[in-house]
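Design job #97: recover the sequence.
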């Protein structure tokens, strides 16, 4: 019995989007790192704060779709670079309010038009009707992905130092049936 041929990796939507982001996003990364001295993650957080205003650290992580640990590390770096302020909330020092400093706002005001230009040039490959359909398609794909995540029952990765090797597909299936 022969296994069914697998579709080429290039046929998978997520792989193709990842490749597009890697190629086109590399220009943004080079601008961020080479010209502005920030990481792409820091740029994402700065852009989120610029568009949403002051946020708590958990809210910032959620809006930027980053995990809290990476967000916290990036925030620490941006505070050290004097791009972001971190103010503890009265009554609960564990809760902090984050906002852009004048330097952070100036960086955003200089970098955002450059990122916008890269995006516009990339979308220039599409005519107006195709760009509108593409935008609509992206909205629908995003909504579908969010529904899929809400409905999915998937194991969470154990990223601790003593992570155990997860069971193979057959072992995992036996465990699910046994429960």
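Job complete. Output follows.
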């Amino acid at each position: 019995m022969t296994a069914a041929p697998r579709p080429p990796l290039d046929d998978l939507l997520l792989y193709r989007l990842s490749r597009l982001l890697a190629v086109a996003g590399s220009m943004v990364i080079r601008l961020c790192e080479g010209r502005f001295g920030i990481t792409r993650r820091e740029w994402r957080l700065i852009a989120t704060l610029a568009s949403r205003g002051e946020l708590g650290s958990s809210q910032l992580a959620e809006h930027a779709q980053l995990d809290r640990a990476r967000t916290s590390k990036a925030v620490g770096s941006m505070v050290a670079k004097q791009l972001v302020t971190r103010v503890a909330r009265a009554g609960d020092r564990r809760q902090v309010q984050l906002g852009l400093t004048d330097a952070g706002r100036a960086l955003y005001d200089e970098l955002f038009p450059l990122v916008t230009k890269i995006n516009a040039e990339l979308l220039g490959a599409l005519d107006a009707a195709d760009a509108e359909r593409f935008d609509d398609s992206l909205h629908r794909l995003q909504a579908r992905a969010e529904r899929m995540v809400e409905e999915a029952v998937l194991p969470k990765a154990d990223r601790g130092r003593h992570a155990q090797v997860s069971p193979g597909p057959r072992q995992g299936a036996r465990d699910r049936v046994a429960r």
